[in-house]
Structure formats: C-alpha cells, structure tokens
Design a protein that fits this description.
Elements lengths: L1 E7 L4 H10 L1 H4 L3 E10 L2 E8 L2 H8 L2 H9 L3 E7 L4
C-alpha cells in the first residue's frame, strides 16, 4: 500500500530528519521504499510503500514517537494513495 504522511510541527527540518533517520532501522520492517519532500520549515511530506501496516502503526504510536510528537507539537495526516492510469 502506498501512503503519504504530511507532518506539521514546531521545529526545524533538521529536527524532523534526525527523528526520521533514527527510526530507519525500525522502518525496514514495514517500508519497502520512501521519498521525503520538504514543503517548508516545520512541514514535511513522506511518500512510502508500506509492506506491513500494523508494524507501521506500532512504530508511529511508540513511546519514543509520541514523545517527539508532543515535544514538537507534531500533527501527522496520513493519506492512502492509489496510482491512476
């Protein structure tokens, strides 16, 4: 399944990328491919090919992720994507 996660937060792009890079090893358990797009400072979009939605939800709701979200007042909007021909 392809998803798009749009994250809006009160921090820098560097803050976000540090968190994203620190979870890459965990993401290998649910994500086959991804692209990161910087919309602006404090807003990032990640397009992902998800292989295990339950594992993704587990990582995104972990104590570590909840703490980061709270620290930076982060709101994630998640969209399911279908390719159009």
């Amino acid at each position: 399944m392809n998803v798009c996660v749009v994250s809006t937060f009160e921090g820098s792009t560097e803050d976000y990328m540090e968190m994203f890079n620190s979870t890459k090893e965990q993401a290998q358990g649910f994500m086959a491919d991804y692209d990161v797009g910087i919309i602006r400072e404090g807003k990032v979009m990640v397009m992902m090919q998800i292989t295990d939605m339950n594992k993704m939800q587990e990582v995104m709701s972990s104590d570590e992720m909840k703490a980061w979200d709270e620290k930076f007042n982060c709101v994630d909007e998640i969209y399911a994507l279908d390719k159009m021909n």
